[in-house]
Each structure stands twice: as C-alpha cells, then as structure tokens.
Amino acid sequence: MFTEAEDERVLRAVQVIVDEKLARPILVGRPAVLLSRIEKFGLRLKLGQDVEVTNPEYDERFHQYWTTYWEMMCRQGITKEMARVEMRRRLTLIGAMMVHVGDADGMICGMASGYHDHLRFIDQVIGQQAGTKTYGAMNILLLSEKTVALVDTHVNEDPTAEQLADITLMAAEKMRQLNLEPKVALLSRSNFGSGSSASGEKMRQALALVRERAPELEVDGEMHGDCALDEALRLRILPSSTLRGSANLLVCPNVDAGNIAYNLLKTAAGENVAVGPFLLGVNAPVQILTSSSTVRRIVNMTALAVVDANKPR
Asked: Which Pfam families would you find in this protein's record (predicted)?
C-alpha cells in the first residue's frame, strides 16, 4: 500500500516493484491523476491490472473505514463528522485503516509532510507491538568500508533512559532480522564518565537497563562517536570495554543528535545510499519514509516490508 502514489518517485518505484514481482501494489490516489502521470513519466502501469487503486475521493469501503476509526477515537475527541472528513483527506489514515481491517498487508508512506504527521495516525489505528512502550526510528548507512545503523533518528525528542533501552533492544533485533550482528555503542559528549552532562548519566542508566534485559548483547557506553568506531582509541581510553571492533549500531541521546549525525554521514560519507528509516515498535509492516527518499530506497523498503508481512506475528 503506497499512500502518496501520485508522487513521481513512488510511481517509478512501483513500476520496478511490478516488473520484479516484489508485491501486488495498492495505490492511494485519484485515478485520473495517476493515469496522467503514468503517461507523463513513460511508465507501463495498468490500473486495475498491475496495481489496485484506492480513490481518496470515493471508495465504497470508506463507510466501514470512518466508522471503525470513529469507534476507536470517539473517547479522544473525534466526532463522527470529524472521522468522516479525516478519512477522506488523510492518506496515511486511509492506508493505516486498510492495514488494520486486512485490506492491505503493509504500508509505505512519508514522502510528503513530517514524520510525526504520519506516525500520529499509525499510532491511533495500528498501535504498538505487544509489550512495547515506545516507537523509534532506525536508519542504516551503507558506507564504503562499513555498515552503520543509527537510532533514534526521527521519533523521540528527548528519550528517557528506559525509552533508550527499549529503542536499543528493538534496533538490535531489527539488525539481526537483516542478518547483521549488532555491536552497540551508546553515544554522548561524555566519554566513560569523563563529563557531567545529563546525556552521559542518561546513557549510563540506559546501558545498565540494556545489560539487565539482554546480557548477551555486545554493548558499551557512554562514549564519544570516534571511540564507537575506533577500537584502538576506545581500548586506549578504557581497556576493559566490553565492546570489540567497530560499533555498527549507534544509539544517540536525543533525536537531534541522531538525525544530524545520520544526515551528515549520509551526505559526506555514504553517497546518499541509505536504508530506512525503519519504524521500530509498530504492530504491522508499516514504514514511514522521508521527503528525501529516492526511488531506490522506496523499492528497498518495500521489499523489506514484504519480508516483514510474511513473518508470523
């Protein structure tokens, strides 16, 4: 399910997905606009044959969708009329409801507007995995000499130690699903107690929680970014560090640090080759991408969503 199907990048990605038989796409978009843009971009997609279409202006299923949404939200200030209106103008809400009722197996959204604009509707309709208390976002960078993941890049403004521990464990599990063995560094401007910053204390608390909940996980902190990636430097400062080699999962103390680090690395060292963001903690194969997403990234994230959709839950 692609909620911004009128976007050129999405249509080009869907053409690749159809050609490669990766999935059966469902496009949320106005049929006339989709047809016009498919012709304009020289694509070969046939509506109703290669792809299904959900028209946001009219779909006979919308009555079920908006009434279900109202039943979910009627005690949170959403009236029947608001539910009816929102269901026709919020594309991510349409997609989330289609996943919720089983009309779609997964969803790709986020190419337009902010991350939290999409997350709000996903949280309302789909919610978190059982036992999960927070969401997180993980981006993976394919650098020339290594693969590095960063969290949290989009969700939590200033996460608590408990939230950081949750995010770390969810990110580590996602990396294992991708056949990447996580080696985790909790980052701070404090280096193994060298400073009195609030982030240093928070990351130390998070480290204790992670070690308590996942003693098998290779993790250490709090540390500087260079120590995370340079084992020789790290061992010179703290020979007893439990982290060996270069960390490949960098946990940042807040969303500003995570997002800035990700975008700098992506542009300066990653040649803009990235996978993600992965929405961690959500109870369905749903991914919120960003306005900078390329056709290649949309295709990659769709393939991963298909894998996720076929896993038992």
From this structure: PTA_PTB
Lowest mean pLDDT among 13-27, 243-257, 272-286: 272-286
**288 token code pair:** 């919120």
Bridge partners of 280? Answer: 136
**Model pTM?**
0.93
Tokens of 87: 């269901």
100: pLDDT strictly greater than 70: yes
User: Which one-letter DSSP state was computed for residue 272?
Assistant: T
Residue whose C-alpha is closest to residue 29's, from 61, 46, 7, 9: 7
Residue spans of the domains in the chain: they are 8-127+282-309, 136-268
Q: What are phi and psi of 190, to 5 degrees?
A: -95, 140
- What CATH code is assigned to 8-127+282-309? 3.40.50.10950
Superfamily grouping for domain 136-268: Isocitrate/Isopropylmalate dehydrogenase-like (3.40.50.10750)
What average pLDDT does the structure give for the chain? 94
Question: Omega into 81 within 30° of 0, i.e. cis?
Answer: no
> Token match 């202006």: residue?
57
Averaged over 174-201, what is the pLDDT? 91
